[in-house]
Amino acid sequence: MSYVLGECLLLDRLREKGVSRAEFARALKCTRAYVTQLINGDAHMSLTFAINAAHYLGCRVTDLYVLTWSNEGQE
User: Fold this and answer.
1) Residues 10, 34 contacting (CB under 8 angstroms)
2) Residue 18 has pLDDT above 80, yes or no
């Protein structure tokens, strides 16, 4: 049993804080293209990036993705 990352909620968090993708990218020292990849689900955040993103946005790391519980692999 484990959690599985679902949809990225970064765009929701950015909108809540009134932060643009460009501002967020500058603050986190990444490209806007990477931010777009995260939002579109084409990339996943590393733990370090997620911790820094959550700190910058004033949320929890678990607020950055939909988390679903999976029983896959259970016998």
Assistant:
1) no
2) yes
